[in-house]
Amino acid sequence: AAKEAAKEAAKEAAKAVAAADREAAKAAAKASPPKTVEPALSVSAPTFSAPKFDVPKFDMPSVPKFDLPKLDAPQFDVPKVSMSELPMPPAPPPPPLPVAPKPSPSPPKKAPAPTPAPTPIVMTGKSAAELTAEAEAVLRGASTENQRLLDAATAEAASIKSAAKVEVSSLNTAARMKANEITGVADRLVSEAKGSLGSASRSQDTLLKKLEGLKASQAQTQVELDSTFFLNFGKKGELKEQINHFKQQAKATGKEAESAGKEVEKARGALEKAEAGASKEADKAKKVIADAAKEAEKLEADAAKQADKASKDGEKAAAQVTKAAEKDAAALKRAAAAAAKAEAKALS
User: Fold this and answer.
1) Is the pTM higher than 0.90?
2) 296 and 153 in a common domain
């Protein structure tokens, strides 16, 4: 409100000064020719600065009556008017004489505003050191996980091979047991046949030797009988009895030896049959062993493939972990580089 009142007072004062100038100009025009009259252009009105004007408290005075002073044409003194005695114009004033516009005073140069200090950059995220450490931690963790995967793959491959080895050993053991069982019966039959043949051969040999002894005794007794005096009937009779006895024993022993020979032939046939059967059973046993070896070879080959696959899978998984970690670490390092630039800019 005070500023508005000041502005209105300034306007009223300017109007009063303008009216006084016009009245003075009219009086000067009447006193001398216009060409010698200095126009009121040389009179400068007081300037007011609205912001620095203190508005006095006054009541609007009545318009006083006063006579204009007589002025010489060359010199014109503008009467000093007190702000408290400014008259109000009775009527709207005529339009003012054309005057050359005064150049408006250039506004005062403002002092250059001080350059504000750069606002410090506040890092709301992680620092470059933290990001770098995190990248290194990612790589270390990936290296640890990589080694763990490789170790696990190696252990799995070794476990597969070990299990296959145990299975192969069990398979071979079972095959040998079955082969031994197959050949065992045949070998026992062969052994029994050999025993029977041996026993029959020994019995036959014993009987043949006995028969040979009896025949030798008979022949010797016959020689003694032939050399005995023909009139020695007692001794001849005794020798003849001995010869008959040897003949009888030799006959019986011959029969026994013949039977023993048959037994030998029978035992020999049984042995040959047992040996032929044993040979067949041995072939079966060999086939069992060969089949087991073939199966064992297949098991070992499958185990080798599985172990190789486990190793490759472990290497592939480890490579994927390393690749992902390197990608994450690269992103963290880029972020660390950006953070380092921001920190350097904040410190500059």
Assistant:
1) no
2) yes
